[in-house]
What does this fold into?
Amino acid sequence: MSGRGAIFFDRDGVLNEDVGYLYRIEDFRWMPGAREALGAVKAAGLLAIVVTNQSGVARGLYGEEDVTALHDWMQADLARDGIAIDAFYACPYHADAVAPRWRHPDHPDRKPNPGMILRALRDWAIDPTRALIVGDKPSDVEAGDRAGIAGLLYDGGDLHALLSPRLARLAR
It folds into this structure.
């Protein structure tokens, strides 16, 4: 398969501090090196794609519009430095959803299921051999494995320093 290269990012705990059910802009804090990592991904000619479970929607803690507003704010904040995220994929489904609309026992998009990644691979004509998912939980890496892409577990520290050595191989 010949296609584009991409880095998939989990959101909470990778790009931003995980404060638990983040939806308010005033609670958002970039992780160390996250902005720089996104800039390096774009400079390498790779796609930057966010795949995030958002069970707070299913739990009734906030709405889809809150998730969209936060993602729009992230884009605007990054744009000040000429950086952009190419796409956001969010899964609001959960087995314990308060609203039947979001209740699903094992939705294909909810990580560790690979649905969001598989959809992005198709939507953006991404070559799985030129893709990597960065997550802070084993379920993120498992979703990547199940989608046929490499995974990298991030446990804090400088995200740019962790990711930089891997970009040249994916950029080809």
Notes: Helices lie at 34-43, 55-58, 64-79, 115-123, 138-147, 159-171.
